Structures are given as C-alpha cells and as structure tokens.
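Changelog entry

Holo records now carry the ligand SMILES as an explicit input line rather than a separate metadata file. Below, a converted record for magnesium ion, shown in the new format.
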Amino acid sequence: MTDIIRARGLVKRYGDVTALDGLDLTVPKGTVLGLLGPNGAGKTTAVRILTTLLVPDAGTAEVAGIDVGADPVGVRERIGLSGQYAAVDEHLTGFENLDMIGRLYRLGRDVSRGRARELLERFDLAEAADRPVKTYSGGMRRRLDLAGALVAKPEVLFLDEPTTGLDPRSRTELWEVIRELVQAGTTVLLTTQYLEEADRLADEIVVIDRGRAIAQGTADELKVEVGGERIELVVERDDEVPVAREVLSELAAGDVQVDDHTRTLTAPASGGAKTLIETLRRLDARGVSVLDVGLRRPTLDDVFLSLTGHVAEDGTEPAVAAAAATGGAP
Amino acid sequence: MSAAHALQDGAIVAKRNLIKIKRVPEVLVFVLISPIMFVLLFAYVFGDSIEIPGMDYREFLIAGIFAQTVIFGSTFTGAGLAEDMQKGIIDRFRSLPMSRSAVLIGRTASDIVYNLLSIVIMALTGLLVGWRIRSSFLDALGGFLLLLLFAYAFSWIMALMGLIVPSPEVINNASFIVIFPMTFIANTFVPAENLPGPLRTFAEWNPVSAVTQAARELFGNMPPEAAAAVPDVWSLDHPVAYTLIWVVGILVVFVPLSVSRYKKAASK
Ligand SMILES: Nc1ncnc2c1ncn2[C@@H]1O[C@H](COP(=O)(O)OP(=O)(O)O)[C@@H](O)[C@H]1O
Ligand SMILES: [Mg+2]
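Structure line, unchanged by the conversion:
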C-alpha cells in the first residue's frame, strides 16, 4: 500500500509554546486516520502544515507524493480542506459559494456550476441552494464547507474537527457523508476530540498531546489499552451498594469504583454486553433494585488518563471538553 | 503563477465582494450618507465663516471632501480582509491552487466600486449646494480618476493593515486615528496657508493636500486669486505629478508587502 500522507518530525513553535514537537504521521491511500487529542494538542497546527497553510520550523511532509514545502501549489491541487470553523461566505448563497470555489479551481463555467448543483444535491442542501448562507443552520454550514472541500474531487481530504459544535443529529449525518466518501476511495485525515468519532470513522488513530503522538493503533487496540468498556450502574437504596459492589467485583476485569453519594458503581467490563447481562442477572437474584445501568465506552478523558496519567488539561473551551466527555456515552 | 491567472482569479474574488453590496445594502447606505453629511455640515456650518480669496467656500470644499471620503473608503479593504481572516475564508482561499495575489487584487478592485459610488453621490450633493465644474469634461474626468487612483493605492496600505490586525473593529478604530489627522492637517477644509508653523509644512507636503489641490485645479475650482494664495512649494505647484509619485511609491512598497503577508497569513 502506498502512503499518501507522510510527515516526519514536524515541529512548530509559537514563542514559548511548542505546538508540534516532532510529530510523525503516515496515512496509507484509501484509509482514514483519526488525529485524536484535546484542545491545544496541536491538531490544527498539523493540518495547517499538511495543507500548506503553515510552514513548519522543522520536519518534512509529503502529500500525494508531493513535498509540501517544495511544491505547495501541486499539493493544493490534490487536497480538500474543511477547517475547524466553517469557512463559508455568509452573504453568498450555497450555490455561489461552491461555484466560486469551482471557478478558482479553474473548472470552467459550466463544469463549475454543474459540480456545485451536484454537491448541493448530495449534501441535502438543494432546497437551500439559492438562499444566503446567513440563513443556514450550523449543520448546514458545516456540510456546505465540506462540499467546498470536495469541489475538485480531491485525492486527500483534511477535516479539522468536522463535528465540533454540532448537535447529535447533524453529527450522525456528517459521519454518514464522510463514510460514503471513504467508500468511494478518498483518503481522509480527520482531527477530533471525540474518541467515539475516531472509533466510528478512522481505520487508525493517533492520539496526540502537547504536539507529540502518545499512542497509535486501531480504536479497539486503544480501548484495550485503556481497559475497554465500563459498566456503570446506579442502585436504588444505600444498603444495596455493598451487595452490588460484591457482585461487580466478581465479574469485573478490574477495580470497582463506588460513589456512595450518588449510589453509582463503575467497573471495567472486558466481556461487554455479556458481562452486563450476567451482572444484572446476579443483582436481580439478590434482590437489588437497579435504577440505571449501562455500558460506557471509554472517552477521550479515559484514554488520556490511562495514557498520560493526567486528565486532558486545557480549559480554553470547557463546554467542548464537557461535550467530549459525554460524547462517548452510548 | 501568471499575471493572467492573478487577474482572472482576482475578478472572481471581486465579484464575490460585490455580491455583498447587493445583499447588505445597509453598508452602502452608511458609506453614502457620511459624505452627504460632510458636504452639508461644512457647507452650512462653516460655509460663511471661512473666507477663501476669490471664490465661494462651498466650491473650495467639495474637492477636499472628495479626497477625505475616498481615503476613508479604502478602510473597507482593510476591514473586509480582516473579516475574511477572522472567519477563516482566507484559509479556504489559501488552500486552493489559486493565485497568491488574487484575493488582494479582487478586494482592492471591488472597493473601487464603493468609492465610485460615493463620488457620484458626493458630486450630486455638491451640485445641489452650489458646486460647479468649471473646466473641460476631460479635465474633470482626470480629476475623478486621480482621486480614485489615490484611493486605490491607499487601499493597499489598508490591505496590509487588514491582514495584520486581529479583528475588523481594530481597523475601523485605527484608521480613524490615522485618517482624521491626515485629512484635516491638509488643505481639504481650510487653505493650507491658514495653518500654523509645523502643521503648515506638514499640510504642504501631505499627499492628501496634493490630491485635493489637483482635483480643485482639474475641476476648475481654483480661480487666479485663490491660486495665488496657495503656498509656493513644489508639491502644490505640481499637484498631479506629486500625487502620482505617491501613488507609485505606495504601490511599489505595499503591494509586495501585502502579498507576502497574505502568503503567511495565519487565521486567528
Ligand atoms: N497563531 C498562533 N499563535 C500562538 N500560539 C498558537 C497559534 N496557533 C496555535 N497556537 C498554540 O499552539 C498549540 C496548538 O494549537 P492547535 O494546533 O490549534 O491545537 P488543537 O487544534 O489541537 O486545539 C496551542 O497551545 C495553541 O495555543
Ligand atoms: Mg484545532
């Protein structure tokens, strides 16, 4: 398999801040790489370097066999970028936005128009095509931005946090669109703060923290490293907590954590749903009333805690961090 | 990247900017109201208290207001670019295989349209308050072209500012601080010879004075008596040449600076 993205030792500093600290990346053709990390990890910086928007202080990168520094225009002809914030012109209509991009790719008037209509249709924006983007919802803007990245049918697609800030439904819709693109053969590098998103879309995940890759593997491999899924259950009465704890420790793959105040118990469950069912059976047999129970997939926070021993620290966007934490719960 | 590509891409970007005029006409209304207000305020508030030898103050005033307004018009370039930076649109452009100077060429070109519209409105207002063109059609046309050309050069300075500042608001405030003194310490609203010492020297060599003086002469708003009172310095004796020197100088310095800044532009 040929590697369509290859980056070696990327370094980028902003004053005292080292945004990238020797990052290596390899993405085989036709696959999806998920770059997973908290706010400030260096995801956007990596994407900006690979898409020729930023020159690294050190390191080399090749995209589609072309050196990013030596022939940036050649790279730009082969990539599509959908940045962290939808870069669409509010005053233009959806159609005008895409047509403008097509013309700037020198598609020619008719081809450009045809392509714009085709993409609007495909991204479920045909109805809104001739309305100014100002009237679009967040999800519609994001789809239009993604459509903009696809105008010239790029070989490689860069998506920087494509679903951050979207409601769950728009997120699922966008996932669907990205999956279709991948099926059609596009190579994708996407960044995300959600383990679940990387899990759904990526063949391979690179976890980055402070500009360095700290882990790499498939979603399953990472989850095993993190301890996989956890059972989380809430019992009705205080006196049931010790019993539940006993049952859980018989079945769990590790320590049981108990929060007496909320009567919540959690424990790693290596057997997934089977373990969950067995737990419920035994709890029932001993007369414990369960208020709430579920299998919780590990979140980015869990991944970080186990990989780095510290919680994904940052604090610039607490709302996003909170969303990432709940994003992993089924 | 060839010059033809730069112009072709620039035209696409300019078209995009012009669509905005159509979609947000409110902006245009404000662009046009302020020169009207200036013409009326100066004509009627100061009109009778400022004496110009051999001519009516209103006739003297109009060229000055033209100059001030088109220079303010150039802040659109900066504000527009700053806004595109802030919204990530520059990133999108920079990720396309388009010409590196096209966004700036397109932006500065579409802002000529703003300036053209405001000149038309000001000229009409001027005619209403008694301003007249007393020269030939060609001379007058030359006067308007010189004003637009000067504003065009100035918009490249603003383009650089727009790429540097963190938000469009900064442009609007900063340009106020620069443009107000530049356009007031000049012969725009009062004759340069009326200004005290150092201000007078500044005004004499201020390119805004030159472009104003040139416009006055080309519109035929400079009767001999008034012309005799104009300070005898090279810049005001040869206002067209002096203005053109500034235009070329500004373009030679600021076009490459802006383009190189654009290449490195990092969105906020
Ligand atoms: N233009 C810039 N100037 C200064 N610091 C920056 C700039 N861009 C990014 N950084 C810093 O570099 C680090 C990585 O940022 P970024 O790549 O945007 O992270 P992410 O996309 O993972 O949130 C952060 O600490 C950020 O504050
Ligand atoms: Mg980012």
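Spot-checked after migration. Residues A 43-44, 84, 160-161 surround magnesium ion (ligand 2) (CB under 6 Å). Residues 166 and 320 of chain A are 11 Å apart (CA to CA).
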